[in-house]
Write a structure and sequence with these properties.
Blueprint: H1 2-32, H2 36-47, E1 51-52, E2 65-70, H3 78-83, E3 93-98, E4 109-112, H4 120-126, E5 133-136, E6 148-153, E7 156-162, H5 163-168, E8 172-173, H6 175-178, E9 182-184
Parallel strand pairs: 2-3, 2-4, 4-5, 5-6, 7-9
Antiparallel strand pairs: 1-8, 6-7
Helix pairs in contact: 1-2
Length: 188
């Protein structure tokens, strides 16, 4: 029982840190000239704290959490720097670039940037049912079947979540993260 309470307290603290980091990054972006991809990199790192992957997703207990970027890397070295030395439990992070969705092995989070806007539906269709959290930044990303879409509102980075797409891939997104997002549904 004490372990369950400690686990829930850890999740709540993580959510507070996520919200605090997002607010801090928003403030710094306005003041210090941070770009949107620093904020998005922080979100990608923090999303991993609030998603549960199904059993069998990782080959071993200490396999890294793979954050993969399809095509053009808009983050530069920001994402690698952000996750360097960080762990969730025994899992470190590994950042990789891939050319297409034929190479998603070892990817738990897959970012599809706006440079891939012509291929978004094709890429998402190829990943249907895979236990990979898909994150993008095009306007129709969640409607096309993506799970999390970044949206710019002035200087702020917000996000939408397509809960149905996540559930279809057997991913569980924490209600704490859902509470920060706009929930959208895929249109037929």
């Amino acid at each position: 029982m004490a372990l369950l309470i400690l686990s829930e307290m850890t999740r709540i603290l993580s959510l507070i840190l996520l919200m605090g980091a997002a607010l801090e990054l928003h403030a710094q972006a306005a003041v210090a000239g941070f770009d949107e991809y620093q904020v998005k990199a922080a979100f990608l790192y923090n999303f991993a704290k609030f998603v549960e992957w199904p059993p069998g997703t990782f080959a071993s207990l200490n396999d890294p959490i793979g954050i993969c970027i399809v095509g053009v890397n808009p983050f530069g070295s920001t994402l690698e720097t952000m996750v360097q030395g960080k762990k969730i439990g025994d899992r470190a992070f590994a950042v990789r670039r891939i050319a297409d969705t034929q190479q998603p092995r070892g990817c738990q989070i897959l970012f599809i940037g706006s440079a891939e806007w012509k291929r978004v539906r094709l890429l998402l269709d190829a990943l249907k049912g895979a236990a990979i959290l898909t994150v993008g930044e095009t306007d129709d990303f969640t409607v096309a079947g993506g799970m999390i879409a970044f949206q710019l509102e002035g200087p702020r980075v917000r996000f939408q979540i397509n809960l149905e797409a996540a559930e279809h891939s057997h991913l569980k997104i924490s209600s704490k993260l859902l509470g920060l997002a706009e929930i959208v549904k895929r249109q037929p």
